[in-house]
Automatic annotation (TrEMBL):
SUPFAM superfamilies: Cytochrome P450. Its cofactor is heme. InterPro entries: Cyt_P450, Cyt_P450_CS, Cyt_P450_E_grp-I, Cyt_P450_sf, Cytochrome_P450_monoxygenase. The keyword Protein biosynthesis does not apply. The keyword Metal-binding applies. Keywords: Heme, Iron, Membrane, Metal-binding, Monooxygenase, Oxidoreductase, Transmembrane, Transmembrane helix. This is Cytochrome P450 E-class, group I. One of its GO terms (molecular function) is oxidoreductase activity, acting on paired donors, with incorporation or reduction of molecular oxygen.
């Protein structure tokens, strides 16, 4: 009895804890398989180091990692378990996936709380199987088949913008562009138009929710029960009690889940061109696939619907906002683009001012402008870890043990001065000179590469070409006193990039002078 109570005294508990944590720290610093890799000692000892930058500093670990590389070199240990590389010459090895299995890091992707979604499936083979049914749907050929859907939304975007033209009223072009993206994405993926473009404020609350959404992921990475606990709150309760933006988002989530369930049922009787008006969606592709029955459950299919549609929202919208700002604030770039478009229009068969997507894709300067936008805003602010589960990786003089998560951050690579002199400048010329372009062709990767390359890449390209061509031909925007270059400064990792100006892009608009 006496022995038990002395073992349970606070002094002995404290001593045990001190002994445990110092032994653990000693092991992680000197005996762990990653002990030989450079980096701050505290990061090697505990993941609370990352948690501090993720949670307390609100998404600053990406930028801290950039600083750590300056001090410790191109390969560093950023947590007890994980390495980060900042060396473009290693990009192909880590992301182009020639042979062997490449997993994602379950600790990072599970925290997104969309278990089963393609993008957050860690296992190589499982990911491949789940992605297979969607590849044809997102192929370039299928995007071309759906170009009228995109063009119709571009026309709607333009008519909404035109309402502000010459009125002196300021438009939040950022919200308008986000609304466009959401409407295209949900209609293409799920066959339903949520009519964000019809709303007076372009449904800006939804945009704000997406720009703050990374917080839950960053918290859940470190406090594992947090995300699942939040998801367990009934949506009806949140719709009634949360603030208006979260409630709106919840209404959308609830409706798209019901829609997914309805489509899964309807898919059994789907006939192409049938008179029930059913349009083929990704739900039909999954339903008809050889995937296991458990992968066709409403919950699993909804995980894909939610993340595939969501992946097309603020990613492409951020790129477009940045491009629109730079193009319309720079008369030389604007003039050159308009000349190129005018030339292409005069050469078109019917002289029509609406140039087909195929023609736009051939325009070298427009393409250079879009590429430069994607360089500066490669959608994701975070590192994308890859794991070779069954073999060592070699980096320089280091042997990386099998199973180690290793990440690179595209945002940092796209800002590498060795590849892009004056990396913060919006400089489309970089992409005009074939020699300069050659230098970066292996490491320019806004959509990543390899087996996990962005599924919606062709859709995103089609959207940016068609929107930019239409805006250039129809409008002039004046940002003076409303939006500045520093609004596009990357401020935090919300999984997606979050900028100083958030998603706002205020402008005065007028119809283009001939
Ligand atoms: C400029 C716009 C976009 C950029 C820069 C972009 C970038 C990326 C990147 C870097 C990844 C890899 C993520 C990872 O490895 O974890 C990715 C994956 C993905 N993207 Fe995009 N994306 C864009 C637009 C879109 C659109 C419009 C959609 C669909 C509507 C989409 C759907 C997806 C999906 C489903 C994945 C997961 C693919 C997989 O894991 O197999 N993206 N995207």
């Amino acid at each position: 009895m006496e022995l038990t109570s002395s073992l349970l005294s606070w002094q002995s508990i404290a001593l045990t804890a001190v002994l445990y944590f110092s032994t653990l720290a000693f092991y992680r610093l000197y005996l762990h398989p990653l002990a030989k890799f450079p980096g701050p000692k505290l990061a090697a000892i505990t993941r609370y180091y990352e948690a501090y930058y993720d949670i307390i500093k609100n998404g600053q670990y990406t930028f801290k990692i950039a600083d750590m590389h300056k001090k410790y070199g191109p390969i560093i240990r950023i947590s007890p378990y994980e390495l980060h590389i900042n060396d473009p010459s290693y990009f192909e090895k880590l992301y182009c996936h020639s042979g062997g299995k490449w997993n994602k890091y379950d600790w990072a992707v599970d925290a997104q709380c969309a278990i089963g979604a393609i993008i957050f499936t860690p296992d190589h083979d499982r990911h491949k199987a789940r992605r297979l049914p969607l590849n044809a749907y997102f192929s370039k050929a299928n995007i071309f088949r759906h170009k009228d859907l995109i063009v119709a939304k571009v026309d709607k975007l333009c008519s909404r913008i035109a309402e502000f033209s010459g009125t002196g009223r300021i438009i939040d072009l950022g919200a308008a562009i986000s609304a466009f993206q959401r409407d295209v994405s949900t209609e293409f993926v799920l066959g339903k138009d949520y009519k964000n473009l019809d709303q007076d404020d372009f449904g800006v609350g939804m945009t704000l929710v997406f720009h703050g959404g990374g917080a839950m992921w960053r918290l859940t990475k470190h406090i594992r029960w947090y995300g699942p606990a939040m998801l367990a709150i009934p949506k009806d309760f949140l719709i009634k009690n949360a603030g208006p933006n979260t409630a709106n988002f919840m209404r959308y989530a609830q409706d798209s889940e019901h829609e997914t369930a309805r489509l899964l049922e309807a898919a059994a009787t789907y006939k192409p061109g049938g008179d029930d008006g059913q349009r083929r969606t990704i739900v039909h592709e999954i339903f008809d696939s050889d995937l296991l029955e458990e992968d066709k459950s409403v919950a699993r299919v909804f995980a894909d619907v939610a993340t595939v549609t969501g992946a097309g929202f603020e990613t492409t919208a951020s790129v477009l906002r940045l491009i629109v700002y730079h193009v319309f604030s720079n008369p030389a770039i604007l003039g050159r683009l308009r000349d190129e478009l005018a030339h292409a229009t005069s050469g078109s068969d019917d002289g029509s001012s609406t140039l087909p997507l195929q023609t736009l894709e051939q325009l070298p300067y427009l393409t250079a402008v879009l590429m430069e936008g994607m360089r500066l805003s490669p959608a994701l602010a975070t590192r994308l870890q890859r794991i070779a589960p069954d073999r060592e990786l070699i980096y320089d003089r280091y042997r990386i043990p099998a199973g180690t998560p290793v990440g690179m951050t595209t945002l940092l690579m796209h800002m590498d001065e060795r590849l892009y002199p004056e990396p913060h400048r919006f400089e489309p010329e970089r992409w005009v000179d074939p020699e300069a372009r050659k230098k970066t062709e292996k490491t320019y990767a806004p959509f990543s590469r390899g087996t996990r390359i962005c599924l919606g890449m062709h859709l995103a390209w089609a959207e940016v070409y068609l929107v930019m061509a239409a805006l250039l031909q129809k409008f002039d925007f004046d940002f003076e006193g409303l939006t500045h270059e520093d609004h596009f400064e990357v401020m935090s990792d919300q999984f997606i990039i979050s900028t100083k100006g958030k998603a706002v892009l205020q402008a005065c608009v007028s119809h283009r002078m001939a």
